[in-house]
Fold this protein.
Amino acid sequence: MQKIMIIEDDYDIARELSELLENNDYQAVILEDFKNASWEILNNSPDLILLDINIPYVNGEVLLKNIRKISSTPIIMVTSRNSETDEALSISYGADDYITKPYNPNILLLRIGAVLRRVNCNLGVLSYKDLKINPQKGVIERGDREIILTKNEMIIFCCLLKSKNRIVTRDELMTELWNSEEFINDNALTVNISRLRAKLKSIGYDNVIDTRKGIGYILL
């Protein structure tokens, strides 16, 4: 179970976030010692951090910079500030995403899932049956055969792989691609899926991406 740390000084909001996360199969930890926030983060080793900008003792953006000096843990800024400057600063300081309050809980969950999948996808070589997947190089190998995927195709494949045997909705895929700064519309997603299927078929993996009509896709 992936652990998410909530850094939010409004306890009611923090509890609501905690319940939302735990109801969706995450382990939630609420930061209580804001004075020693960096130490608490290291001590808890979360998989992702939800960080508010307005917190006691240190501004959230400053804390973000401090965290980035010691950790690459993915961070999503969750704040009531609706400012392009704050968003630009947060991203430049190392935030992985930025969402403003009030937010749709389902959108927040999609953003969390997208960031976690993207981080996991960048960790190194992955495997699927007898395939070796190298997201950094953009290639999939089967023995001495190799296919080269575009950035979008690799993101889609990694999303499906990380959720193997579970349906990944089209909205989830679109969010993942959007979070990677790749603009893609609904028709383009269909085209990318078709190209990915064709490339997998060329190395002997036909019909491994199944369409669930009206919902999304599943990697079998």
Q: What stands out?
A: The longest strand covers residues 3-7. The chain has two domains: 3-104, 122-219.
